[in-house]
Design goal:
- By secondary structure, the chain is of the alpha+beta class.
- It is built from 17 helices and 7 strands.
- The chain has a 5-stranded mixed β-sheet with strand order 3-4-7-5-6. A two-stranded antiparallel ribbon has the order 1-2.
- Strand 3 and strand 4 form a beta hairpin.
- Helix 11 crosses helix 14.
- The longest helix has 21 residues.
- The N and C termini lie far apart (69 Å).
- The C terminus is likely disordered.
Length: 354
């Protein structure tokens, strides 16, 4: 499986540090890397340049050549080789899972059959799913490349399996921020933490319930060129609309506009609008849904003045609220409250009788 922690761009943005890690793997096996570098069109003299970069295509070529020539998909990370096809086997072992949660658990379990030098684990608490890596062997100079690649393999496979972007809330790494830290936001969405206790990432638990969208035929096609697993940033996020609704409900002051919402979601404003459009919904429609539900609830359950309700659900004045409410329901807020009153009165009468 020729996959790697590449950046989603055609420009030269993949750190040369990852190229040097592969060259180090060649050194450990006593093999000359010049042919691999030539295949990737990387000049040997450039490898030593600390802040140099290569393109995703160059790194894919180097990575694929190295994995096959060295017959080690782990590229020297572990005490024993992972022969060519090992990660393909991991993909296949998880493919028949009923949902993403089961697929990730199977991936973690089967990864341990390949090596116990690092152990991947999935934990869920308070609505957050967290994948962590526990290191049982000193990884030395290959540590960063190993941990970053292992997380990207799993995250990329998970996105591919459910055919959806999985937006990360946080990614954390047990080492100091490297000189090429500017590459990390392109590889991992969400907040970044260095000098953490262990490597891992977290995301919304609800992704785990999504069913897998791929079959064996799709897997065979993907394995012919698995680079998209870690390069392709899926545009569609199947939970984005739900997450926007929740922020509008729970944190209205912080989610007052598109820019603020995008910041809370670790997206650009343009990406937020584009992804919602691809889901077939607009931010304004989501705002209207939330406001309508809140307004209806307050009109039914409280006796607050309509002006106060208008301000509470985000309108500047009662007139604009009334106009919008009529468009939503066909009635003014006052008419709606009066029509709901008999139900409320009946309910009170029933309570008294009981």
């Amino acid at each position: 499986m020729a996959s790697s922690p590449l950046l989603p761009s055609g420009r030269a943005a993949t750190p040369m540090a990852f190229v040097r890690a592969i060259v180090l793997a060649y050194s450990r096996y006593g093999v000359d890397p010049r042919e691999a570098l030539q295949q990737a069109q990387i000049a040997p003299r450039d490898v030593a340049r600390p802040l140099a970069h290569v393109t995703a295509a160059q790194f894919e070529a180097l990575n694929a050549h190295a994995m096959q020539e060295l017959d080690d998909e782990a590229l020297g990370w572990f005490a024993r080789k992972l022969p060519w096809g090992s990660y393909g086997m991991l993909c296949r072992a998880s493919l028949g899972s009923p949902d993403l949660g089961v697929a990730i658990k199977r991936w973690c379990r089967h990864h341990r059959l390949l090596t116990d030098d690092i152990v991947l684990d999935l934990q869920v608490a308070a609505g957050i799913a967290t994948v962590t890596i526990t290191e049982h062997r000193a990884l030395g100079a290959l540590r960063e490349f190993c941990l970053v690649s292992s997380l990207r393999f799993l995250h990329g496979y998970a996105c591919w399996a459910i055919d959806s972007r999985i937006s990360l809330r946080e990614a954390h790494f047990p080492f100091a921020a490297p000189p090429h830290r500017e590459a990390y936001p392109l590889m991992f969405s969400g907040a970044l933490q260095f000098d953490a206790a262990q490597a891992g990432f977290s995301f919304d638990e609800r992704y785990l319930a999504l069913p897998l969208q791929r079959d064996e035929r799709a897997l065979r096609t993907m394995l012919k060129r698995a680079l998209p697993l870690t390069v392709l940033q899926y545009r569609r996020d199947r939970l984005l609309g739900q997450r926007v609704r929740e922020l509008l409900r729970a944190r209205p002051a912080e989610a007052a506009n598109a820019d603020a919402l995008a910041t809370l979601l670790h997206l650009s404003t343009r990406t937020l609008h584009r992804q919602l459009h691809e889901e077939g919904v607009s931010l304004q429609a989501l705002k209207d849904d939330v406001r309508q539900a809140q307004a209806v609830d307050q009109l039914r359950r409280t006796t607050r003045p309509i002006k106060q309700i208008a301000l509470a659900v985000g309108f500047r004045n009662e007139k604009s609220f009334s106009r919008a409410f009529r468009a939503w329901t066909g009635a003014t807020p006052g008419e709606f409250r009066r029509s709901a009153q008999p139900i409320s009165t009946l309910s009170k009468a029933s309570d008294k009788v009981s």
